[in-house]
Amino acid sequence: MRFHEYKHVDRVSVEAVTWSRESYGLFDYESQHVSRRNLKASSSAKIIRIKNDIRLVTDMYNERNVCENSKTLALLKHQDGVFSVTKHEKKSDRTRSNASENFWLVVKNIKKDNVNQEYQLRENDVIKLGRVKFRVRELHVGEEMDGYQNDTNNDEMSELGSEDTGSIEDDMPKQHLIKQLPENQEITCRVCLNSENTEANPLISPCGCSGSVKHIHLDCLKHWIKSKSHIKSFGLCISYTWKNLECELCHRRLPEIFIHKDERIDLIDLPKPQSSYVILETLAKEQQVSKTFYVVMATENDLIRLGRGHDCDVKINDISASRFHAFIKLSYGRFFLGDNGSKFGTLALIKNDFVIRPYSNISIQIGRTVITFTLINKSPQLLHNNEYVWIVRIEFNLTLGVLVSHVLMEVM
User: Do residue 84 and residue 123 come from a single domain?
Assistant: First the structure.
Protein backbone atom coordinates (compact mmCIF):
# COMPACT_ATOMS: atom_id res chain seq x y z
CA MET A 1 0.00 0.00 0.00
CA ARG A 2 1.27 3.45 -0.89
CA PHE A 3 0.67 6.13 1.81
CA HIS A 4 -0.72 9.47 0.76
CA GLU A 5 -0.18 12.97 2.09
CA TYR A 6 -2.97 14.34 4.32
CA LYS A 7 -4.29 17.75 5.22
CA HIS A 8 -6.86 19.08 7.73
CA VAL A 9 -9.70 21.16 6.36
CA ASP A 10 -10.84 23.63 9.08
CA ARG A 11 -13.71 26.06 8.82
CA VAL A 12 -15.75 28.15 11.21
CA SER A 13 -19.51 28.07 11.43
CA VAL A 14 -20.94 31.55 12.08
CA GLU A 15 -24.55 31.41 13.23
CA ALA A 16 -26.04 34.89 13.66
CA VAL A 17 -29.41 35.84 15.14
CA THR A 18 -30.50 39.50 14.99
CA TRP A 19 -33.42 40.99 16.90
CA SER A 20 -35.47 43.32 14.72
CA ARG A 21 -35.73 46.06 17.38
CA GLU A 22 -33.15 48.64 18.42
CA SER A 23 -33.42 48.77 22.22
CA TYR A 24 -30.37 50.03 24.15
CA GLY A 25 -28.16 47.14 23.06
CA LEU A 26 -30.60 44.51 24.35
CA PHE A 27 -31.43 41.19 22.72
CA ASP A 28 -34.72 39.45 23.44
CA TYR A 29 -33.96 35.75 23.80
CA GLU A 30 -37.70 34.93 23.82
CA SER A 31 -38.68 36.91 20.71
CA GLN A 32 -39.78 35.26 17.46
CA HIS A 33 -39.11 38.45 15.49
CA VAL A 34 -35.51 37.64 14.64
CA SER A 35 -33.47 37.16 11.48
CA ARG A 36 -31.21 34.12 11.26
CA ARG A 37 -28.13 33.62 9.13
CA ASN A 38 -25.83 30.57 8.93
CA LEU A 39 -22.46 31.27 7.34
CA LYS A 40 -19.18 29.38 6.88
CA ALA A 41 -15.71 30.91 6.80
CA SER A 42 -12.41 29.29 5.84
CA SER A 43 -10.32 32.49 5.92
CA SER A 44 -10.20 35.89 7.58
CA ALA A 45 -13.39 37.93 7.20
CA LYS A 46 -15.18 41.00 8.44
CA ILE A 47 -18.58 40.41 10.04
CA ILE A 48 -21.00 43.20 9.15
CA ARG A 49 -24.69 43.90 9.71
CA ILE A 50 -26.91 45.55 7.07
CA LYS A 51 -30.25 46.28 8.69
CA ASN A 52 -31.14 42.81 10.04
CA ASP A 53 -28.88 40.81 7.73
CA ILE A 54 -25.42 39.52 8.67
CA ARG A 55 -22.72 39.09 6.02
CA LEU A 56 -19.08 38.07 5.77
CA VAL A 57 -16.73 40.33 3.79
CA THR A 58 -13.61 38.43 2.77
CA ASP A 59 -11.81 40.73 0.32
CA MET A 60 -11.27 44.40 -0.48
CA TYR A 61 -13.45 44.28 -3.60
CA ASN A 62 -16.50 43.17 -1.66
CA GLU A 63 -15.71 45.68 1.07
CA ARG A 64 -15.75 48.59 -1.42
CA ASN A 65 -19.15 47.47 -2.64
CA VAL A 66 -20.72 47.24 0.81
CA CYS A 67 -23.49 49.79 1.19
CA GLU A 68 -22.90 52.78 3.43
CA ASN A 69 -25.51 51.90 6.06
CA SER A 70 -23.71 48.74 7.14
CA LYS A 71 -22.15 48.31 10.57
CA THR A 72 -19.02 46.29 11.27
CA LEU A 73 -19.52 44.02 14.27
CA ALA A 74 -16.27 42.04 14.50
CA LEU A 75 -13.24 40.72 12.68
CA LEU A 76 -12.71 36.99 12.18
CA LYS A 77 -8.99 36.31 11.78
CA HIS A 78 -7.34 33.14 10.46
CA GLN A 79 -3.62 32.84 11.05
CA ASP A 80 -1.37 29.76 11.34
CA GLY A 81 -4.40 27.50 11.32
CA VAL A 82 -6.06 29.30 14.27
CA PHE A 83 -9.30 31.30 14.14
CA SER A 84 -9.75 34.25 16.50
CA VAL A 85 -12.31 37.04 16.92
CA THR A 86 -11.47 40.67 17.61
CA LYS A 87 -13.12 44.08 17.47
CA HIS A 88 -12.98 45.95 14.18
CA GLU A 89 -10.31 48.52 13.44
CA LYS A 90 -12.15 51.76 12.88
CA LYS A 91 -9.28 53.50 11.09
CA SER A 92 -9.33 51.04 8.20
CA ASP A 93 -13.09 50.57 8.25
CA ARG A 94 -14.71 51.95 5.12
CA THR A 95 -18.23 51.35 6.34
CA ARG A 96 -20.16 53.60 8.66
CA SER A 97 -19.74 52.58 12.29
CA ASN A 98 -20.67 54.05 15.62
CA ALA A 99 -18.54 53.65 18.74
CA SER A 100 -17.25 50.11 18.93
CA GLU A 101 -19.74 47.94 20.80
CA ASN A 102 -18.59 45.65 23.58
CA PHE A 103 -18.46 41.88 23.18
CA TRP A 104 -20.59 40.09 25.76
CA LEU A 105 -20.33 36.35 26.41
CA VAL A 106 -23.79 34.72 26.49
CA VAL A 107 -23.68 32.64 29.67
CA LYS A 108 -26.65 30.40 28.84
CA ASN A 109 -24.95 29.24 25.60
CA ILE A 110 -21.61 28.15 27.09
CA LYS A 111 -20.99 24.58 26.00
CA LYS A 112 -18.09 22.17 26.01
CA ASP A 113 -18.41 18.73 24.41
CA ASN A 114 -22.11 19.58 23.87
CA VAL A 115 -22.64 19.96 27.64
CA ASN A 116 -23.98 23.23 29.08
CA GLN A 117 -21.64 24.93 31.52
CA GLU A 118 -21.74 27.90 33.86
CA TYR A 119 -19.34 30.83 33.76
CA GLN A 120 -16.61 30.87 36.40
CA LEU A 121 -16.37 34.30 38.00
CA ARG A 122 -13.21 36.10 38.98
CA GLU A 123 -12.53 39.48 40.55
CA ASN A 124 -12.97 42.51 38.25
CA ASP A 125 -15.30 40.60 35.92
CA VAL A 126 -18.14 42.73 34.58
CA ILE A 127 -21.52 41.05 34.20
CA LYS A 128 -24.71 42.36 32.65
CA LEU A 129 -28.28 41.39 33.52
CA GLY A 130 -30.64 43.12 31.11
CA ARG A 131 -29.44 46.73 31.14
CA VAL A 132 -27.88 46.54 34.60
CA LYS A 133 -24.12 46.09 34.92
CA PHE A 134 -22.17 44.85 37.93
CA ARG A 135 -18.48 44.55 38.63
CA VAL A 136 -17.26 41.66 40.76
CA ARG A 137 -15.39 43.66 43.37
CA GLU A 138 -14.26 40.78 45.57
CA LEU A 139 -14.54 37.00 45.87
CA HIS A 140 -13.62 35.36 49.16
CA VAL A 141 -13.53 31.68 50.08
CA GLY A 142 -13.77 31.16 53.83
CA GLU A 143 -11.90 28.78 56.08
CA GLU A 144 -14.69 26.24 55.73
CA MET A 145 -13.51 25.77 52.12
CA ASP A 146 -9.87 25.11 52.96
CA GLY A 147 -8.21 23.08 50.25
CA TYR A 148 -10.11 24.83 47.46
CA GLN A 149 -9.14 27.98 45.60
CA ASN A 150 -11.04 30.23 43.20
CA ASP A 151 -8.47 29.50 40.50
CA THR A 152 -9.20 30.26 36.84
CA ASN A 153 -5.92 29.12 35.32
CA ASN A 154 -7.48 25.94 33.92
CA ASP A 155 -10.66 27.63 32.76
CA GLU A 156 -10.76 28.31 29.01
CA MET A 157 -13.20 31.18 29.54
CA SER A 158 -10.78 33.00 31.87
CA GLU A 159 -8.78 34.19 28.87
CA LEU A 160 -11.76 36.32 27.82
CA GLY A 161 -11.38 38.65 30.83
CA SER A 162 -8.81 41.25 31.74
CA GLU A 163 -7.83 43.50 34.60
CA ASP A 164 -8.60 46.56 32.49
CA THR A 165 -12.09 47.93 33.21
CA GLY A 166 -11.77 51.36 31.68
CA SER A 167 -14.07 50.70 28.74
CA ILE A 168 -17.19 50.42 30.90
CA GLU A 169 -19.64 53.29 31.25
CA ASP A 170 -18.80 53.91 34.90
CA ASP A 171 -16.97 57.25 34.96
CA MET A 172 -16.08 57.15 38.64
CA PRO A 173 -12.49 58.43 39.13
CA LYS A 174 -10.67 55.30 40.25
CA GLN A 175 -7.45 56.55 41.81
CA HIS A 176 -6.19 59.62 43.59
CA LEU A 177 -2.51 60.13 44.39
CA ILE A 178 -1.89 61.53 47.88
CA LYS A 179 0.85 64.12 47.55
CA GLN A 180 3.34 65.03 50.27
CA LEU A 181 2.32 68.33 51.87
CA PRO A 182 4.87 71.13 52.57
CA GLU A 183 6.12 70.99 56.16
CA ASN A 184 6.16 74.77 56.64
CA GLN A 185 2.54 75.20 55.52
CA GLU A 186 -0.20 75.39 58.14
CA ILE A 187 -2.98 73.10 56.97
CA THR A 188 -6.06 72.00 58.89
CA CYS A 189 -8.76 69.43 58.29
CA ARG A 190 -12.06 71.02 57.28
CA VAL A 191 -13.98 68.55 59.46
CA CYS A 192 -12.06 68.19 62.75
CA LEU A 193 -9.96 71.41 62.33
CA ASN A 194 -6.85 69.47 63.42
CA SER A 195 -3.56 70.00 61.60
CA GLU A 196 -2.00 66.65 62.52
CA ASN A 197 -0.70 64.82 59.44
CA THR A 198 0.43 61.22 59.97
CA GLU A 199 1.26 58.22 57.79
CA ALA A 200 -1.79 56.34 59.01
CA ASN A 201 -4.14 59.32 58.71
CA PRO A 202 -2.80 61.80 56.14
CA LEU A 203 -4.39 65.10 55.12
CA ILE A 204 -5.62 64.86 51.54
CA SER A 205 -7.38 67.02 48.94
CA PRO A 206 -9.78 64.59 47.19
CA CYS A 207 -11.95 67.12 45.34
CA GLY A 208 -11.85 70.52 43.66
CA CYS A 209 -12.26 72.66 46.77
CA SER A 210 -9.60 75.23 47.63
CA GLY A 211 -8.61 77.49 50.49
CA SER A 212 -9.38 76.49 54.07
CA VAL A 213 -11.71 73.66 52.98
CA LYS A 214 -9.27 72.05 50.58
CA HIS A 215 -7.90 69.37 52.93
CA ILE A 216 -9.47 66.65 55.01
CA HIS A 217 -8.15 63.73 57.02
CA LEU A 218 -8.51 60.37 55.31
CA ASP A 219 -10.26 58.92 58.39
CA CYS A 220 -12.60 61.91 58.54
CA LEU A 221 -13.52 61.42 54.90
CA LYS A 222 -14.14 57.69 55.45
CA HIS A 223 -16.36 58.46 58.44
CA TRP A 224 -18.32 61.03 56.41
CA ILE A 225 -18.73 58.55 53.54
CA LYS A 226 -19.98 55.87 55.93
CA SER A 227 -22.55 58.25 57.45
CA LYS A 228 -24.03 58.93 54.01
CA SER A 229 -24.71 55.26 53.16
CA HIS A 230 -28.15 53.65 53.14
CA ILE A 231 -27.99 50.08 54.44
CA LYS A 232 -30.53 47.35 53.70
CA SER A 233 -30.42 43.72 54.77
CA PHE A 234 -32.42 40.88 53.24
CA GLY A 235 -31.59 37.22 53.47
CA LEU A 236 -27.91 36.56 52.83
CA CYS A 237 -27.30 40.02 51.33
CA ILE A 238 -26.50 43.45 52.78
CA SER A 239 -26.57 46.40 50.38
CA TYR A 240 -24.82 49.74 50.86
CA THR A 241 -26.04 52.60 48.69
CA TRP A 242 -24.76 56.15 48.23
CA LYS A 243 -27.08 58.47 46.34
CA ASN A 244 -24.46 61.16 45.91
CA LEU A 245 -20.88 59.97 46.25
CA GLU A 246 -19.52 63.45 45.65
CA CYS A 247 -18.27 66.52 47.49
CA GLU A 248 -21.16 68.56 48.90
CA LEU A 249 -19.36 71.85 48.16
CA CYS A 250 -17.81 71.52 44.68
CA HIS A 251 -19.96 68.52 43.60
CA ARG A 252 -16.97 66.69 42.16
CA ARG A 253 -17.19 62.91 42.34
CA LEU A 254 -14.90 61.36 44.91
CA PRO A 255 -12.35 58.71 43.92
CA GLU A 256 -12.74 55.18 45.26
CA ILE A 257 -9.03 54.46 45.68
CA PHE A 258 -6.20 56.52 47.15
CA ILE A 259 -2.53 55.80 46.50
CA HIS A 260 -0.25 56.75 49.38
CA LYS A 261 3.45 55.87 49.01
CA ASP A 262 2.66 53.04 46.57
CA GLU A 263 0.04 51.59 48.90
CA ARG A 264 -3.63 51.28 47.96
CA ILE A 265 -6.23 52.70 50.35
CA ASP A 266 -9.91 52.04 49.68
CA LEU A 267 -12.18 54.95 50.47
CA ILE A 268 -15.17 52.67 51.02
CA ASP A 269 -14.66 50.14 53.80
CA LEU A 270 -17.35 47.49 53.68
CA PRO A 271 -17.97 45.13 56.62
CA LYS A 272 -17.19 41.60 55.45
CA PRO A 273 -18.42 38.24 56.76
CA GLN A 274 -16.03 35.67 58.22
CA SER A 275 -17.39 33.01 55.87
CA SER A 276 -17.31 32.88 52.05
CA TYR A 277 -18.81 35.89 50.28
CA VAL A 278 -19.01 37.82 47.03
CA ILE A 279 -19.15 41.61 46.67
CA LEU A 280 -20.84 43.15 43.63
CA GLU A 281 -20.85 46.85 42.78
CA THR A 282 -23.16 48.61 40.36
CA LEU A 283 -21.66 50.43 37.40
CA ALA A 284 -23.29 53.82 37.05
CA LYS A 285 -23.93 55.60 33.79
CA GLU A 286 -22.45 59.01 33.17
CA GLN A 287 -25.52 60.94 34.28
CA GLN A 288 -25.81 58.96 37.53
CA VAL A 289 -23.84 59.51 40.71
CA SER A 290 -25.34 56.74 42.86
CA LYS A 291 -23.35 53.68 43.82
CA THR A 292 -24.50 50.41 45.41
CA PHE A 293 -22.46 47.52 46.81
CA TYR A 294 -23.93 44.10 47.56
CA VAL A 295 -22.15 41.94 50.15
CA VAL A 296 -23.60 38.42 49.85
CA MET A 297 -22.68 35.43 52.01
CA ALA A 298 -22.19 32.19 50.10
CA THR A 299 -22.42 28.57 51.18
CA GLU A 300 -21.48 25.46 49.23
CA ASN A 301 -23.90 24.77 46.34
CA ASP A 302 -26.55 27.22 47.61
CA LEU A 303 -27.80 29.65 44.97
CA ILE A 304 -27.43 33.43 45.31
CA ARG A 305 -30.47 34.64 43.40
CA LEU A 306 -30.31 37.83 41.31
CA GLY A 307 -33.39 39.42 39.82
CA ARG A 308 -36.39 41.69 40.17
CA GLY A 309 -38.38 39.37 42.45
CA HIS A 310 -38.90 40.00 46.17
CA ASP A 311 -37.34 36.67 47.11
CA CYS A 312 -34.03 37.40 45.36
CA ASP A 313 -30.87 37.99 47.37
CA VAL A 314 -29.66 40.75 45.01
CA LYS A 315 -32.69 42.83 43.98
CA ILE A 316 -32.50 44.63 40.63
CA ASN A 317 -34.94 47.51 40.22
CA ASP A 318 -35.02 47.54 36.44
CA ILE A 319 -37.76 46.31 34.09
CA SER A 320 -35.18 44.62 31.82
CA ALA A 321 -34.32 42.16 34.61
CA SER A 322 -36.44 39.04 35.02
CA ARG A 323 -37.97 38.15 38.38
CA PHE A 324 -35.39 35.38 38.89
CA HIS A 325 -32.83 36.42 36.31
CA ALA A 326 -29.58 34.65 37.23
CA PHE A 327 -27.73 32.96 40.07
CA ILE A 328 -24.26 32.71 41.57
CA LYS A 329 -23.14 29.57 43.37
CA LEU A 330 -20.06 28.46 45.26
CA SER A 331 -18.85 25.01 44.27
CA TYR A 332 -15.51 23.43 45.25
CA GLY A 333 -14.06 26.80 46.18
CA ARG A 334 -15.07 28.50 42.92
CA PHE A 335 -17.84 30.97 42.13
CA PHE A 336 -20.01 30.31 39.07
CA LEU A 337 -22.57 32.47 37.28
CA GLY A 338 -25.59 30.89 35.60
CA ASP A 339 -28.64 32.11 33.71
CA ASN A 340 -32.18 31.18 34.79
CA GLY A 341 -33.88 31.44 31.39
CA SER A 342 -34.03 35.25 31.50
CA LYS A 343 -35.66 37.29 28.73
CA PHE A 344 -32.71 39.59 28.03
CA GLY A 345 -29.91 37.23 28.98
CA THR A 346 -27.04 37.00 31.44
CA LEU A 347 -23.79 38.26 29.95
CA ALA A 348 -20.11 38.54 30.89
CA LEU A 349 -17.91 41.21 29.34
CA ILE A 350 -15.23 39.96 26.93
CA LYS A 351 -12.22 42.25 27.23
CA ASN A 352 -9.69 40.34 25.11
CA ASP A 353 -9.58 38.85 21.64
CA PHE A 354 -10.48 35.18 21.87
CA VAL A 355 -9.60 31.98 20.04
CA ILE A 356 -12.27 29.61 18.71
CA ARG A 357 -11.41 26.19 20.13
CA PRO A 358 -12.51 22.72 19.02
CA TYR A 359 -15.48 21.14 20.78
CA SER A 360 -16.47 24.46 22.40
CA ASN A 361 -19.23 26.85 21.38
CA ILE A 362 -18.73 30.57 21.96
CA SER A 363 -21.80 32.82 21.71
CA ILE A 364 -21.27 36.57 21.92
CA GLN A 365 -23.82 39.37 21.94
CA ILE A 366 -22.95 42.53 20.03
CA GLY A 367 -25.81 44.98 20.43
CA ARG A 368 -28.95 43.30 19.11
CA THR A 369 -27.08 40.46 17.38
CA VAL A 370 -25.97 37.17 18.90
CA ILE A 371 -23.25 35.27 17.03
CA THR A 372 -22.25 31.67 17.78
CA PHE A 373 -18.85 30.47 16.58
CA THR A 374 -18.15 26.74 16.14
CA LEU A 375 -14.95 25.28 14.73
CA ILE A 376 -15.57 22.65 12.06
CA ASN A 377 -12.70 20.17 12.02
CA LYS A 378 -12.93 17.56 9.28
CA SER A 379 -11.12 14.25 9.17
CA PRO A 380 -7.80 14.08 7.25
CA GLN A 381 -8.57 14.26 3.55
CA LEU A 382 -6.57 12.83 0.67
CA LEU A 383 -4.73 15.41 -1.39
CA HIS A 384 -4.73 13.23 -4.53
CA ASN A 385 -8.19 11.74 -4.25
CA ASN A 386 -11.06 13.82 -2.89
CA GLU A 387 -13.48 10.91 -2.94
CA TYR A 388 -12.03 8.88 -0.09
CA VAL A 389 -10.81 9.37 3.48
CA TRP A 390 -8.37 6.96 5.07
CA ILE A 391 -8.88 6.30 8.78
CA VAL A 392 -6.35 4.40 10.88
CA ARG A 393 -7.68 2.82 14.09
CA ILE A 394 -5.22 1.30 16.58
CA GLU A 395 -6.49 -1.20 19.16
CA PHE A 396 -4.81 -3.25 21.88
CA ASN A 397 -5.72 -6.94 21.70
CA LEU A 398 -5.93 -8.21 25.30
CA THR A 399 -5.81 -11.86 24.27
CA LEU A 400 -2.72 -11.66 22.08
CA GLY A 401 -1.14 -8.73 23.93
CA VAL A 402 -0.30 -6.94 20.71
CA LEU A 403 -1.27 -3.72 18.99
CA VAL A 404 -3.48 -4.23 15.95
CA SER A 405 -4.05 -1.46 13.39
CA HIS A 406 -7.04 -1.31 11.06
CA VAL A 407 -7.05 0.75 7.87
CA LEU A 408 -10.56 1.68 6.78
CA MET A 409 -11.70 3.47 3.65
CA GLU A 410 -14.89 5.53 3.68
CA VAL A 411 -16.64 7.33 0.87
CA MET A 412 -16.89 11.11 1.36
Answer: no
